[in-house]
Amino acid sequence: MAVAVREALLILQEEPERQQRLCELVAFTHREIRQRGEWSTSESQIIPYIVGDNANAMQLAAALQSRGFDIRGIRPPTVPAGTARLRISLTLNVEEDDVRAMLDALLEETRGMSR
């Protein structure tokens, strides 16, 4: 574990463009969410989408996973009761087009689902 942490720190020092690219992707994603008027978020790379109902959150996560998005459903006791959610985690493995496609898929899947 210590070797992995040391290597990660070296990469951050030697390749600062990775951190910059992730910051740009996070900012882009938050702009896209705000432009769509969907929900408010922090400026984190981990974006919660509150669903509320446990079953709906897991159903929505499964639907998005079947479309190729690695989005996880999170429910109590990890989060307070009544606040089950999706955890959207941005990484350098995605591009802006992937983010747009994910947001479009999320909107399509949530149509008709009570939140």
Topology pattern, helix = H, strand = E: HHEHEEH
Class by helix and strand content? alpha+beta
Per DSSP, the total helix count is 4
Major sheet characteristics? 3 strands, antiparallel
**Mind telling me which CATH architecture this is?**
Alpha-Beta Complex
Distance between the termini: 40 Å
Overall strand count: 3
> Could you give the order of strands across the largest sheet?
1-3-2
* Count of individual domains: 1
Low confidence ranges: none
Keywords:
3-stranded antiparallel beta sheet, 115 residues, 3 strands, single chain
Structure notes:
- With 115 residues, the chain is α+β, with helices and mostly antiparallel strands.
- The chain has a three-stranded antiparallel β-sheet, covered by helices on one side.
- It has one domain: Aspartate Aminotransferase, domain 1, CATH 3.90.1150.
- The model has no long low-confidence stretch (mean pLDDT 92).
- It is built from four helices and three strands; from the N terminus they run ααβαββα.
- Helix 2 packs parallel to helix 4 (96-110).
Q: What's the short version?
A:
This protein has helices at residues 2-14, 16-36, 54-66, 96-110; strands at residues 46-52, 72-74, 84-89. With 115 residues, the protein is an alpha+beta fold.
